[in-house]
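Person: Show me a sequence?

Helper:
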Amino acid sequence: MARSGGGGCCPSMDLMRSEAMQLVQVIIPAESAHLTVSYLGDLGLVQFKDVRLPAPSGGCLIGLCDREFHATSDGFPSALQIREFATATRNCLLLNADKSPFQRTYAAQIKRCSEMARKLRFFKEQMAKAGVSTSSAQLVDTRWDFDELEIKLGELETELTEVNANNEKLERTYNELLEYNTVLQKAGEFFYSAQRSATTQQRELEASQSGQPSLESPLLEQEMSTDPSKQVKLGSLSGLVPKEKAMAFERILFRATRGNIFLRQEPVDEPVTDPSSGEKVPKNAFVIFYSGERAKAKILKICDAFNANRYPFPDDVSKQLHAVQEVSGKISELKATIEMGLAHRDSILKSIATDFEQWNHLAKREKSIYHTLNMLSVDVTKKCLVGEGWSPVFASSQIQDVLHRATVDSKSQVGSIFQVLNTKESPPTYFRTNKFTSAFQEIVDAYGVAKYQEANPGVFTIVTFPFLFAVMFGDWGHGICLLLSTLYLIIREKKLASQKLGDIMEMMFGGRYVIFMMSLFSIYTGLIYNEFFSVPFELFGKSAYACRDSSCGDATTEGLIKVRDAYPFGVDPVWHGSRSELPFLNSLKMKMSILLGVAQMNLGIMMSYFNAKFFRNSLNVWYMFVPQLIFLNSLFGYLSVLIIIKWCTGSKADLYHVMIYMFLSPTDDLGENQLFSGQKTVQLVLLLLALVSVPWMLIPKPLLLKKQHEQRHQGHQYTMLQGADESVGAELGEHHGDSNDHEEFEFSEVFVHQLIHTIEFVLGAVSNTASYLRLWALSLAHSELSSVFYDKVLMLAWGYNNIFIFLIGLVVFIFATVGVLLVMETLSAFLHALRLHWVEFQNKFYEGDGYKFAPFSFALIGEED
């Protein structure tokens, strides 16, 4: 059902019903397909369906795109030719579910786009490592060519990969040289100290012995001195081993060589960069002396197992000095080379960073275009593409303008064809929202997306949600705190929208206008409750009551006398602090919660009437809406009227007694609980109506549905005439199959379904009304918590007459107010208001079984997986 829009390019916004949608078909020449889909993505008002054209048997679409059209004066086919062509194409369309993504027409292009996206992610990782930030300038359409960009990215990736590989090799060599230099220093110290110790011992031996061996002389020395040919030649290995593995390394060496080695270790002062991992690792320098090739082989294997890097150490002192000088020179050369390589890499990354956002946007844009083109069907002649999709009715002229512009810009000789199709499919739901209404609509959509053109609870949620929140959060001091924090988000929304916020902050920023409305309503209800951080003020005039004498200051309100007119707005401040404050506020807020709940539930039932009228469902009007309205108001509507009468008359009637005995003893006299004349008769009539409305909801609707079904399918059985055309037979057979699919009518299932709905409503009328008492409970809890923090923290600290104690109490009061009342209580009241809308209000009329309109739009392109 289309609605007329307002003037200009943008029709008037309507949140009550979703936008009128239409199923459209576009037939695009192959040469202008890419540009057409690109322009449609800029427009963002078409949701494409996944369709395909099967290989035609008998020439279903062969020659359709080769058909010669007689052009009209504007160069396009006539409307009659368009309709014929679209009808012929539509009859050959099937779902595209049996084609895998790799069998689609543009699978190769999507693969190229994915490869470009991979390269861009590689560039982003490299820029993050190098600390290079991308340009934050706005995206400008520079019309990069896709093929040129692909070549450019490939060249940059190759160059950057080569630079990184060279830098890694240089870094590895540099770290190895640093380790080698460390080993030369530490091993040099070992050998120097050992040589000095050996020289000292040799001198001592020569001085103590007269040239003849004694029993105390070492046997090896005696043998070597007597037979030089039998001297043992020792080998050595030096290197670095991780410090955490040093003890195990030494133990394994000792066991593997049976103690026939000499190992010397010393920790390195500072952690060393490991050449393999590139991480800083604490290490020990070691020197191993061994004898024999078998021992050497074992030692080498153990070193490899413990990741001990080995480096050669010359025996000659002069060679040691030369090695130290050579390693130091190579280190300085490599350091300069590495710095030049890093500078070259940074220059490449900076050149990438200037255009990175443009390239990233283009890669995502192209991938989305080809993904959409894959949802279109290619004719066997490969000269045109056929696509179907949903679009709002108001967008028809815009889509046609886009198709015409794409045809002109692509210099195509054949124009695109646009056709509206008739269908029985359920269209998607599309509400045009702005930054203010979008958050409220998201609250409704979180429960379920509205069925197509179903009444939208979001219209009422804009007011009722923050109001019910404020009923539970009524304090105009706390409301001002919420308002100030929300105004900060609203004033800086342009800057914050472009920043990366945390999860919680992102949630608050998205719902800033919801919190804004909640704060305004909290100030309003706080003025009604007359509470500013639990402190009452005489903002609208003087209190209507005054003490009878000086002894009534701590008494009940019976010690007060009325000296002037009633307090003009909200609760009289004299109630706060009196002994009867809690009973008075309890009674007020409890009755107010029932009134608000019954009013909102009646609103939900009224919306079910408008839904039934809109969809022309008279059964729901007479056998759902009417009995539900009667049942709810016969019980709880009547209770609401009694509350108002009691407030107006000042009667002391017990409403609990009235409602209980209305069911238990409806014929008994009310006595002192009577609020108006004829109340007993009214109660009997209302009770009778409530009892009648239950079978009224349960029985007639299933019977009438069965009757309608039988009438609808009378005379629908038929047989095919002989000699009928195959295409006609196939089409009629299809409709015949469809009618047979819907012939089955399970009365038992329909009756059970209606029984469940009836029981749910009857029991829900009681439980939902009781559920609204959460408004009273949370409002009372918020007020009492605020009063406790004020009296037992701030005022208690003030009573000590000590500035230090007062400052401590003030800090505790601020943290308690912010943490408990402004954070936890806000979240609690938000969730309870959410529940009241989802369960108590929306279940009266809202089905929420639709699906959201998801148009092909470049504005919705997000981060790729």
Observations:
- The chain has a mean pLDDT of 84.
- The first helix runs from residue 33 to 43.
- The CA atoms of residues 218 and 224 lie 10 Å apart.
- The radius of gyration is 43 Å.
